Amino acid sequence: MAEVTLRGLTKQFGSIAAVHAMDLTIANREFFVLLGPSRCGKTTTLRMVAGLDEASDGSIVIGGRMWAMCHSRTFMNGWVLRYVMSRTTKLKP
Prior knowledge:
single chain; alpha+beta
């Protein structure tokens, strides 16, 4: 699986910040779990990474390639997930 990096990722809904300046790097083949209380931005973050929602600010880098920047409609409708899944190798038992 490709490395995923979020840099200053922010999502605003009016005056409400659902995700505020998130910085995160998930290494290649690293197991990652996103946990938190209700309404803390978990689903919103995953939707931005999947290309289903547009970030208000910041960037998403997958496999060294910039997929989303603020005010950019570069990737939508799950194409990012297809790219990541195409790079996935089967894990040995």
